[in-house]
Amino acid sequence: MLEQMSLFDTHQEDTDEEENNVNEQEQTDNDDIAFVAKLKSSRTLASILKTIHFADDAIFCALPTGIKIIVEDKQCVQGNAFIDTRVFDSYELVRQIRFRFHLETVLNCLNVFGIPLDPVTHEPLPTNVAVQIHYRENQTHPLQLYLEEEGVITECLIKVLDDTDTIDFDFQTENVVTKVVFKASGFKEALSEIDLKADCIELLITQDVPHFRLIANGCGGSTSVDINQDSPVMDTFLCTEPVNNRYKTQFFQYIVRALSIASKLSLRIDAAGILCAQFLIYTEKDKPSLVEYFFGPDEELNEHEANTQSSDVVLIED
Amino acid sequence: MTEKKFIFVIPPEHVRHFGKALQVLTKLGEEIYIELITKTNGLSFRTANQSRSSYSCITFYRDFFQEWPQDDLQKEKIKCRISAKRCMSAVHAVLSSKLTRLELVFDDRKSNLSFILHCRYNIIKIHSCFYIDCEKLQARFDKQSYKNCVSIMSKTLQDLTAHFPAKWDEITIRATKDQFIIKKCDEIVHDDESIVYGMNFQVVCEPREFISYDIQYKSDITFCLREFKFLLGLADLLNLPMTIYFDSRGRPIIFCFDAEEFYFDGTFVFATMANREGETDISFNMTQTSVNDTSTMDEDDLVSYRQYTINTTGVNRGGKKRPAPSTSPTLETQINPIDEEFNIDEDNISIDPKQRISTTNHKNTTTTAFGDTTYTVLSQQSIVGLQQSEDFMADMTDDEDEEN
């Protein structure tokens, strides 16, 4: 394999110069640098961002533990992606930052060298594109992304937007009514024929058979999937109270999308009926990344429920 | 129907056949009519296309199923129809998963047909659709009255027609004692009456390609290619001998197969292009009393078939119904000499005793239930329509009666 040109160890003069320019700039504005992260494969970041790409804007937070990206859709769905510091090759955080950015733009930049697809499975192949993220606290400076493949460097400067508040679903982790953990591949197979054009998806989780049932009611009929507790697809099954809630179908479309890169999926529902779906994603490093969704139940259809506590979902803003 | 549940269980080895057969039906029509026939112990699935120019019927017999509704339930009948689209999604699920068991449950209380798929990993998928009780769908045709009957392996037929481009609307068969030619219909007539010759190719087969070859009438018929290709979709899975009955233009062509070892059979009837209006095949005598049928034909159905042919002729060909090739009159006049030769030539007499036996059984026919809706695939002008059968009680002997 050819010795790759990389941002990490430059040998040629041109890139040296470029690097020097960047370094010089960095020296002069060093006080402003809030965050620098380097990743050997941009594919890791791009594929995770793609799973939560269901709205135009996203919130970017750089925390001491890693990066958190929050995407919200019409105040009823929230998707979060957590990428631990150990996934990055280099992670320097000066101050915690939080800003809003246009997700599609960043995704396009991360994929600027193209997305090679496997001819057979049509899955994206791993690439040699490295990425560096620089951000200065000063809002006049844009978010800087440097992507490099085999000596070619692309510099992307993306304007950041004002930060906005995000919903706090107030998921009651201490009051979780049911928790089910699935193997992602098996669950994806189970969902493969669910009619995603139906209006809503009904989730039925009980201690008796069928333990887990997903029903999609379409016009002219319905499709349902039953997964038994004994199924090898199900890793964990905990149910303190029977649950029968409805959720909007588009939520499950997000779930199916995330299943393609995840290894495990955990579904938890709390007493208020909020569904928290967490996906464990393993990339190159041993440390997994996490993508989670919060869905509120479809309230008007749950009025007849006697078992679940009839508390309204309260959205508390930060 | 009653307030009970009819449960049919299909064993894993037959699941793919069931799925594939149903898949073909969902492509050939908008609604699938289901009927439980107690006499022959068969569950039949039938469909007809929107313009009623094709009819398909696949019947699964008792041995196809692992479990069958008990005898006491059989006093009640299943007669209903379901939407082909809903069925398509269920069939797609059946074909794409490895199943350990497939159940069909007719729940009369909820008017619901459920396909219960037992997949691997202890996962159960249920596809249900609503059904509507209705009268049965039945076509009237008489296989015995056809002069030409050939039998060929379905895979061979599929290979022969595989390279016919799907964009060709129709396909023509020209059959004589010595040759069986499959080709595209000859002329394209534009509005300005000029004739344009497009690309054409033909497949010429000799009688020895066929399992049996019995041609008594020189035929030149044209029918829909698209539906024919759907029908041959079954050939991928089952390489079975397919029997084809046909003769004059306008008379429908019938494809039958009998998968004995798999316990199901199928019949497909496609309308063929008729001659110019008014023209009939003079030398050809029809044995059935379907002449009566023409007089009571619904005007709407006539219109719908014409519409179908207009739609299939394509935009650039104008709105004309394609006329018969100019050679057809000459073909007809040669019939008598060929018949004479034919009688002497023993090798070409069709040896198909199985077919003969099954079709002579229907002499003792029973009348169908009063009020059944049937439609007739007409001979002379190949117009297919819906009729009330009570008018035609006397004509029951002509039916391809599956209740035998």
Would you kindly provide a brief summary of this structure?
Chain A is α+β, with helices and mostly antiparallel strands. Helices cover 17% and strands 40% of the residues of chain A.
Q: Could you walk me through the main structural features you see in this protein, from its secondary elements to its overall organization?
A:
Chain B: Keywords: DNA damage, Exonuclease, Hydrolase, Nuclease, Nucleus, Phosphoprotein. Chain B: Its main location: nucleus. The complex is a heterodimer of chains A (318) and B (404). With 318 residues, chain A is an alpha+beta fold. Chain A folds into 2 domains: 129 residues, Proliferating Cell Nuclear Antigen (Box), CATH 3.70.10.10; 125 residues, Proliferating Cell Nuclear Antigen, CATH 3.70.10.10. In chain A, 17% of the residues lie in helices and 40% in strands. Chain A has 5 helices and 20 strands. In chain A, strand 8 and strand 9 form a beta hairpin. Chain B is α+β, with helices and mostly antiparallel strands and 404 residues long. Among the domains of chain B are: 134 residues, Proliferating Cell Nuclear Antigen, CATH 3.70.10.10; 133 residues, Box (Proliferating Cell Nuclear Antigen), CATH 3.70.10.10. Helices cover 22% and strands 31% of the residues of chain B. Chain B has a 10-stranded antiparallel β-sheet with strand order 9-5-2-3-4-21-20-19-11-17. The two termini of chain B are 22 Å apart. Strand 14 of chain A pairs antiparallel with strand 8 of chain B.
Largest sheet of chain A: 9 strands, antiparallel
How far apart the termini of chain A lie comes to 51 Å
* Level-2 CATH architecture of the largest domain in chain A: Box
Q: How confident overall, as mean pLDDT of chain A?
A: 80
Q: Order of strands in the sheet with the most strands of chain A? A: 6-2-3-4-19-18-17-11-15
Instruction: Give me the Rg of chain B, rounded.
Output: 22 Å
**Rg from Cα of chain A:** 22 Å
| Greatest interface (CB-CB under 8 A), with counts per chain | A-B, 20 and 20 residues
Helix percentage of chain B:
10-25%
What is the 3D shape of chain B?
elongated
CATH class of the largest domain in chain A, anyone? Alpha Beta
Proportion in helices of chain A: 10-25%
Q: How would you describe the oligomerization state of the chains in this entry?
A: heterodimer
CATH class of the domain at 5-138 in chain B: Alpha Beta
